[in-house]
């Protein structure tokens, strides 16, 4: 709490009262703290892959290069970690652009059945590797006014999480439900539901999964190439479309993300 005192004086008189201003600065403080935590997290996240690249390159230079098999596996690690760095920096830039509202959205009507089919197709290679079935439940003739590139990013992030955090032979499903039918019989809102039959998220972690760099299982997220930023990007993009997102999950059963969006902007 910030307190300011200033005397109130009327003409001729010395002073007739005191103006006390109480200013609640907790919100400001919280924002400052969040920002500095973010910077600390970013540095930490960037340092890890850089240390790996440096360490393995050093070992190669010190002689490991002579053993072809070892050299190859070290180079693969260097390559993978450089890719991770690339993704991380891309995601961080994306988030900071969104937070400063510097991304203009280009709205156009998106035919959802075609769009979902294309998005699932983009993920089909990943899914096949784990024999995961991708299921689509979208009626034809549903349209959503959206920025198509951003909408694709939302889908790709949720689908790749669904595939990453689901065991072999599981299922990932996309369902579109129109609702809020107006007197003309048109729907005004859509629910986009992305669910999986995966490992689930413990109750205590659920409220935090949209936070930047929050991961339930750091090792698993890293080994699957995760940056820990996917869901916070999704949340921002949904909000830029004036929508909301929530998550329900049961450990060992699966996870369900529900996005609720207005159809027209
Ligand atoms: P990451 O890059 O680690 O996947 P995200 O922001 O996309 O980061 O997700 C945050 C965390 O939420 C993940 O690390 C994971 O622990 C958990 N999570 C996200 N999606 C799912 C899912 N479909 N099933 C189980 N856990 C999930």
Q: Can you describe this structure in just a few lines?
A:
The chain is of the alpha+beta class and 265 residues long. It has helices at 26-61, 68-99, 112-129, 148-164, 218-223, 230-240; strands at residues 2-8, 17-23, 107-111, 133-137, 143-147, 171-181, 187-196, 244-250, 254-262.
Ordered list of secondary-structure elements with their pairings:
Layout: E1 2-8, E2 17-23, H1 26-61, H2 68-99, E3 107-111, H3 112-129, E4 133-137, E5 143-147, H4 148-164, E6 171-181, E7 187-196, H5 218-223, H6 230-240, E8 244-250, E9 254-262
Parallel strand pairs: 4-6
Antiparallel strand pairs: 1-2, 3-5, 6-7, 7-9, 8-9
Adenosine-5'-diphosphate binds near residues 162, 196, 198, 200 and 255.
State which percent range the strand residues make up: 15-25%
Instruction: Report the mean per-residue pLDDT as an integer.
Output: 91
- Counting DSSP E segments of at least 2 residues, the number of strands comes to 9
Order of helices and strands: EEHHEHEEHEEHHEE
Main β sheet profile: 5 strands, mixed
> Which regions have little confidence, pLDDT < 50, spanning 5+ residues?
none
Order of strands in the sheet with the most strands? 4-6-7-9-8
Rg, alpha carbons:
25 Å
Share in helix = 40-55%
Distance between the termini: 40 Å
User: How many alpha or pi helices?
Assistant: 6
Q: Quick one: overall form?
A: flat
Structural class: alpha+beta
Domain Histidine kinase: 41-265
Protein name: histidine kinase
Subcellular location: Cell membrane
């Amino acid at each position: 709490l910030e307190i300011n005192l200033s005397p109130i004086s009327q003409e001729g008189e010395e002073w007739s009262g005191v103006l006390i201003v109480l200013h609640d600065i907790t919100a400001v403080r919280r924002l400052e703290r969040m920002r500095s935590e973010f910077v600390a997290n970013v540095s930490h996240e960037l340092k890890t892959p850089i240390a790996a690249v440096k360490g393995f390159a050093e070992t190669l230079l010190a002689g490991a290069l002579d053993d072809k098999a070892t050299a190859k596996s070290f180079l693969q690690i260097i390559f993978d970690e450089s890719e991770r760095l690339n993704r991380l920096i891309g995601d961080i830039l994306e988030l900071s652009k969104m937070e400063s509202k510097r991304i203009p959205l280009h709205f156009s009507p998106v035919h959802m059945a075609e769009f979902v089919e294309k998005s699932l197709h983009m993920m089909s290679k990943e899914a096949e590797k784990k024999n995961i079935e991708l299921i689509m439940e979208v009626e034809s003739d549903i349209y959503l006014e959206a920025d198509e590139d951003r909408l694709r990013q939302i889908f790709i992030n949720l689908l790749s999480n669904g595939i990453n955090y689901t065991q072999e032979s599981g299922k990932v499903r996309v369902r579109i439900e129109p609702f809020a039918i107006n007197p003309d019989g048109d729907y005004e809102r859509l629910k986009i539901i992305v669910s999986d039959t995966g490992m689930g998220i413990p109750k205590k972690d659920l409220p935090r999964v949209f936070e930047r760099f929050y991961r339930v299982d750091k090792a698993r997220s890293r080994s699957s190439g995760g940056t820990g930023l996917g869901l916070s990007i999704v949340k921002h993009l949904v909000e830029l479309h004036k929508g909301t997102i929530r998550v329900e999950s049961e450990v060992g059963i699966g996870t369900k993300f529900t996005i609720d969006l207005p159809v027209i902007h």
